[in-house]
Each structure stands twice: as C-alpha cells, then as structure tokens.
Amino acid sequence: MIVGNDPVLLTPGPLTTSLATKQAMLRDWGSWDAAFNQVTASLRRDLVAIVGGGDEYACVPLQGSGTFSVEAAIGTVVLRTGKVLVPNNGAYCARIVKICKYLGRAVVDLPVPEDRPASAKIVEAALAADPAITHVAQVHCETGAGLLNDLAGIAQVCARMGRGLIVDAMSSFAALPIDVRTVPFDALVAASGKCLEGVPGMGFVLLRKSVLEASAGNAHSLAMDLHDQYVYMEKTTQWRYTPPTHVVAALRAAVDQYLAEGGQPARLARYRTNTETLVAGMQALGFRAYLAPEVQAPIIVTFHAPADPAYDFKTFYTKVRDRGYILYPGKLTTAETFRVGCIGAIDANEMRNVVAAVAEVMREMGIRQVSPALARAA
Ligand SMILES: *Cc1c(COP(=O)(O)O)cnc(C)c1O
C-alpha cells in the first residue's frame, strides 16, 4: 500500500495517507468557489451518514486540530451554568477536564484506572449522586492507552437520566461502529486526520440539530462558536473565515476511498488484522501489551517497555525510524511504555515489517530481557 520512501507513521494522527489522498492536495481552491463549497457540503452529508444521523443531526466542520473541535463542542453545547461529568481514564479525558476549567464550565473529574473502561454503572452512580450534572463528556477510544470505553452503555444511561452526551470519538469515528439509534448523543467530535485517513487540519462535530439550534449565545469564543459556524454555513454554503482548502479536498478523497473500501466494517476489519498481526509479532519477541485483549481497541497498542537496562526509548525510536517506521512514546502515568498505532493507509504487511525492524533493533541494542514481568514482581 505504501508508495515512496517516507517513513510509515505508526502514530494515531498524523498518519500515513494514500497516494490518492496526497494527490488531492495538488490544486488550489478559492473559498468562494461553488465547486469547493459543494465539496464541503458533500462531506458534511457523508459524515452524518456514517453514524446514521439522518435529518436529526448536522455536521459542523471547524478549522484546527481535533482538540479545537472538542473545545468548541463543549463551549457551544454546555450552558455557562452547566456541569460536565468526565469519566477519566487517560490523557484525552484529562484534556477535557482542563478544557472545562479554561471555559469556566463546572466539571466533575471521575477517576477510572488507566487500564479499565469507563462503564455505564459508574456513570449512572455519578449522575444519581449529583443531579446538577447536565452533560457527560465521554472519550470513546482513550488513545492514551488505546482503551475502549463502553460508549453504548453510557449513552443509554445519559438518555435514560435526561443528561446530554458529548463524545470525543476522535480515534474511533469511522472505524468502530457508532449509530445514533443505539448511541444517541448531543455532540460527537472527530477529525480529518484519524481513522478517515485524511490529513490533519480540521475537526468536525456531529450535533443533534435541536441542541445545536438552541445553543446560540452559549459560546465563550467567536472562533469556537459552532452555532455561528453552522448558521453561516447553512446561509452561504461557505466556511466562516479561511477554510483549510487542501485539507478539505484531501478529506473528500479519503472519504471516497473509505466508501469504496466498504465503509466502517471494512475499515474495522483492516485495523483489527493490523492490531492482531502486531500484537502476535511483538508477543513472539517477548513484549507484553499493557491492556487486556478484551478492552484493547484496534487503534493503537501500548506495550510495556523492555525491562533490560540496555533499553532507552530515544535510541530505540531512532533506530526503528531509520528502518522506516515511526513509533509513538507512551502516555501513561503508571508504567514505562511505548505505543504503536494500527491506523492509517497501512495493512498487515507494515505490521509484520515493523516487528522485524524491532527485532533487529533489539539485537543491535543488546536488549535481551523484554518482559517487564520479573521487574514488576520484585
Ligand atoms: C487525537 C485525539 C484528539 C485530538 O488531538 P489533536 O492533537 O488536537 O488532534 C482528541 N481526543 C482523542 C481521543 C484523540 O485520539
């Protein structure tokens, strides 16, 4: 699948894109151009269709990385007097807590161990204990460890208890199944440069129209006001402020390839094969995945760092990169780890090749004791 000599990005965005997606960026578009605005409109329709949103949901794209859209969603949907519950089992959950504090929205930080999913049960208990909570902000796949949270169960609890649900589905959207009929939400945030395999530079929020239309005046920030972006886009077909034209064109090409590949089920199948190939290969070298298989999302895998004193992430990273593969540092507070992404325009061949590269680098660095089991038991 890979064309050219660029290293393969095994990172959860930016990620390796296809040649067709790269080629879609070779044209300059004007923001007033009707053809460009038709591209935006078609993308908005296709992104709503991925969650079966029909006429009840609208897609509001926003310039910037994914975090900009998370911040915009919270600022637009949550009243200034609202209160947000964040089940927190990783770095991206913690980022939402921080966003709420910046925006002056009351927040309840509900700690969950980094290796365990947020469940419907703990969310239900937290909501029952605090009737002032108006919204739950739930990360679907916590990319920090690669953990899958129980989004469907939590969505059902929110619906039953009459609280709003804002989903950070950045690293799961388009790969893991999300359907508004079984996962009802007020807002769901994702971005161009993750499982849709576009290039980074824009996020988008899928919003329940009734919620969106009632949100005028909530936002604390002009640039981050999704209601204003929506009203302007509906009226003029244009983006408010300069659109990331090349990113939009690349995303159009990426979504065309996504649909041609077979949409969400096909993407999930490929990522699953990538994950299984990677984990099996690394296990054969003695590595242990941080998460139990039943909570591991097929997006990014966290491995325990080798216990051998000859190991050092920076050297390991550089030597693997010199063989053509970009790894990702760990993002856990409790264990020394590194991560390998399984998403992007890559398939099982790349996973086999990165395992071979890791084996070579281990020999070169003299790493013999891989499993951290002994060190941990001590
Ligand atoms: C990638 C990601 C984000 C957004 O990160 P940016 O660096 O702003 O693109 C947010 N949440 C999750 C779960 C992610 O994986």
Question: Features of this protein?
Answer:
single chain, 378 residues, alpha/beta, Aspartate Aminotransferase, domain 2, Aspartate Aminotransferase, domain 1, 2 domains, seven-stranded mixed sheet, three-stranded antiparallel sheet, 13 helices, disordered C terminus, binds pyridoxal-5'-phosphate
Fraction of residues in H or I helices: 40-55%
Which CATH first-tier class of the largest domain would you pick?
A: Alpha Beta
Mean pLDDT: 95
The stretches of 5 or more residues where confidence is low (pLDDT under 50) are: 374-378
Tally of structural domains: 2
Largest sheet: 7 strands, mixed
Report the total helices: 13
- Globally, the shape reads globular
Bound molecules: pyridoxal-5'-phosphate
Which structural class do you get from the secondary structure elements? alpha/beta
Q: How much of the sequence is in beta strands? A: 15-25%
| Name given to the CATH architecture of the largest domain | 3-Layer(aba) Sandwich
Strand order in the largest sheet = 2-10-9-8-5-3-4
Question: Care to count the β-strands?
Answer: 14
Kindly, what is the distance between the CA atoms of the first and last residues, rounded to a whole number of angstroms? 44 Å
How would you name the CATH homologous superfamily of the largest domain?
A: Type I PLP-dependent aspartate aminotransferase-like (Major domain)
> What is the name of the CATH topology of the largest domain?
Aspartate Aminotransferase, domain 2
Gyration radius from CA atoms, angstroms: 21 Å
Helix/strand order: EHHEHEHEHEEEHEEEHHHHEHEEEHH
